[in-house]
Amino acid sequence: MILRQYIGRRRNYQLYWSIALCMAFIATLAYMVMLLTGPTSGPGVYFFRLYYALGGTIMPSWLGLGSIALVSKPRFTRVCVGFLMLLSVISAIFVLDATVDMHRLAHIAGTPGTGTLLPGPWLVMTIVLNTLGVVAVAGVALLSGWKLLRKQASMGGNRTSTILWANVFIFIGAILNAAAGTLARVLGLDNIFWLIMALGWIILFLGVILASRRPRT
Fold it and tell me: Residue 101: pLDDT above 70?
């Protein structure tokens, strides 16, 4: 849906959100294929790495890029795109090269896979990219809220109130997705991980839809 909107309207933030949503979709498919082929099998390990690289490491930062593109000038956005592409490639290489704890991987079904990769450079990049994504989404929400208080009606051609609420939804959804594993462990029910993720994505997608609405003439 968002990709179709981008094709029709050519708004860059819709493209970056489409990329992030596709990453999440591919990561979820990789997780399912990993379980079907056996987590500790050769293909299973590969699909686990793919799931973790796209879903756990790279995707959140592209959500943040969409928020930045929503309110920033094209030149600044292009700089961010180039920088993020470089970090994404480096992160993917680190995840693909990381050492896997095969015992944890064997019991991954229904869990986020936290602790399955042994600590290494991938962990630093994951923290950096996730932090950048959350800061970008939260920063745009705060900026739009501040401008709304100052009675600035629009930002980047969109209504300030629309940007504010869109990014609030995206922020809450992103936080739920990031915290899904922790919440599951705290509650002692690993099998609710995907339920929390589903809730997070529904809320996040509502924000994306809200931001993509055409302003009334």
Answer: yes
Q: Of all helices (H) and strands (E), which one includes residue 142?
A: helix 121-149
- pTM over the 0.85 mark: no
Beta strands in 46-199 (DSSP E): 154-155, 158-159
pLDDT score for 217: 42
Instruction: Give residue limits of the domains in the chain.
Output: 2-211
> Are 129 and 60 spatial neighbours (Cβ–Cβ below 8 Å)?
yes
Weakest mean pLDDT among 7-16, 153-162, 193-202: 153-162
The whole-angstrom separation of Cα 208 and Cα 32 is 25
Contact 192, 125 (CB under 8 A): no
Residue 80: how many other CB atoms lie within 10 Å: 19
Cα distances (Å, whole numbers) of residue 164 to 17, 70, 102, 148, 154: 17, 11, 44, 8, 11
Amino acid at 167: N
Q: In the numeric block, which tokens belong to residue 171?
A: 């922020």
